[in-house]
Amino acid sequence: MWPFGKRRPVSNPAEELQALPKTEQPDIALVEEAVDEQHLQPISRADLRDMQAHRHDVEYQCELVLRMMQEDECVPYPFDRAVTLLRKQHRYEEEAIICRYVKDWAAEREAEYTTGAKAWLDPGIQRIIRRLAEAEALWLESPHRDH
Fold it and tell me: Is the pLDDT of residue 139 over 70?
């Protein structure tokens, strides 16, 4: 179903396309400024292909996440993949550390929020935050935990 109500028939698509407002350079600058303000990093297509190609490689995902953490960034897909793969390998402490980082990152963004995208409300981010309590509990029960 078309999400924006009933679709109306288009008599001449070319005319309608020309009638749409043109994107001006100042508009693009405003978007770039908003992205910078909210610490949102654009991801190149090559990076996306690499993330997808290495989606089962826990070390690759953890390296990627660590780099983002050092830059104070948070992109849901690699963080979600990293915590999922770490859980499968029973590496609960590392999973909890990443989940804690995401929770703190989201809380910081929420506190700083004035306008723009509410990146901390992304479903992927929220899913990682919800994992924190279970990851910490599993780590505490883990026989591999340093005492």
Answer: yes
